Amino acid sequence: MPDTLQVNSAHYSIAGTKPRNEDACGVFVPQEPLLTTKGIAAVIADGMSTSDDGKQASEGCVKGFLSDYFSTPESWSVKNSGQKILSALNRWLHGQGQRKYQSHQGMVTTLSALVFKSNTAYIFHVGDTRIYRLRGNDLEQLTNDHRFVASEEKTYLSRALGIDLRVDIDFKKFPLEKGDLFIQVTDGVYEFITDNNIKSIISQQPQQLQQAAKEIVETAAANKSDDNLTCQLIQITQLPSENESEFYEKLVELPFPPPLEPGLVLDGYKVIRHLFSNKRTEVYLVEDTETGDKVVMKAPSINYQDDPEYINQFLHEEWAGKRINNPHVLKVLEIKRKRTALYYITEYIEGSSLRQWLDDNPRPSINQVRKFAKQIERGLRAFHRLEMIHQDLKPENILIDRNETLKIIDFGSAKIAGIEEIYMPLEANNILGTINYTAPEYHIGEPGSNRSDIFSLGVIVYEMLTGRLPYGKELSARNIKRARYIPIKHYNPGIPLWVDKAVEKAVSINPENRFSILSEFTYALTKPDSSLISNDYVPLMKRNPVYSWQIISLVLFIINLILIYRLNS
Fold this sequence. Notes:
Elements lengths: L5 E9 L8 E6 L5 H4 L2 E8 L6 H15 L9 H24 L7 E9 L2 E7 L3 E6 L2 E4 L5 E3 L5 E3 L12 E6 L5 E5 L1 H4 L4 H10 L4 H14 L6 E10 L5 H8 L13 E2 L2 E9 L3 E8 L5 E7 L7 H15 L9 E2 L10 E4 L3 E3 H7 L5 H20 L2 E2 L8 E4 L4 E3 L6 E2 H4 L19 H4 L6 H17 L30 H10 L11 H7 L5 H4 L6 H4 L1 H24 L1
């Protein structure tokens, strides 16, 4: 069996000379699958002594982070999850302080959090609690104290949770090594004990973390610490490190199903007919024999049964699809019976692909295009909210049902931030997606973003309006710099200039020049944006004033003739 992430931890906390202990700390190690997809979290907090309720602030934040982090979507990155949670906790503290104590210092705390996921450590830090790492004999402080020095005797917190509605959160990440020991301490400890003392105490009892944490705290207390004292130790005892053969074995655990004929029953799904196939997949309409529902079975092509990278992508597609619930995204269904072969089940959509629809409707109205673009946008936003990028958006991967509801399909190429943080021995070396719709950054080896999906949507909109591609040919690493956008008016003169400019912005070669979010693009297809045409559009009066006055004179002459005719009739 492959190794999993494992830690040993211990903590020791006392009030010291203070009447009550306003420090808090905690570690949470979840069960699978969260252990793999979310990792392990460790938090320490120090309620500000001058606040009205530092104890509730510190304890609330520790409990809140350890609970809420593991409730965020598995597709989210650690950074996104942690920052959203801490921002929410900060707003909660500030609101509580204002309501209960009418003070911006009602509930204030420092906080330092560690998340261990796969082979990487992530730090979130606000205030002056500290995190150290002991690697071998090297003790390194990993956090910076957010303090303002007023004098030799006086220092003040310059940053903490609960003071204001906005808070800056330090974030960093770095690779883990087996044996790394992380030390989380409050200022009541580190101000009264040296780094050498800490190293010496731990080295004397490397397997007794609880005793080491207690001795560190008691040493600081004996050195006349005048504050609460807390020390939390977390040691990495095992890291995930699957070798390729183990990983392949897991992927090919289930056999590929054979070609399925009508009437055949596989795991309670009766084949009605074969819907379609390509070189990578076989798709069947099947009936669930328990419920009578018509659903779709998607199975991998036997051409790839010895290709671990393809199998990984196929499994990845099911994982992503199960986590999206949106009317414009194909629903991947839960399989309640035991599987005997590799496949997954989706809802059945009676209709056709957008490609077929475009073949049947080669020149749709601009309003129809806007309607379709808005539906695609809503589906893509479901991906982006979960920090997923589809990466293979094209007319063939969009279905239209009989009510003209569009649904995005095929998630095998989706980039998922939370999954990319998990160590995998397989790396896809090919460009994912279809070349006509693939964003230019992929061709030159740059990572994708939500703007990559905006590019693909822009190409689809351009194609719906013109039947052509925006650059006249396929883009590649060789011709990207020479590529020039062909205005829509060359093929469809009836399209307003501002719509053309919106599409041009969406398919810009440089992703920084595209719309930043999907809704900006679809809005610009509906409402004119003067900023898109201000740099390029020159009014006729400026381009050709003589011709402009000739037109005005002609119009006035016609109006005069009409007036004279009416006066004489």
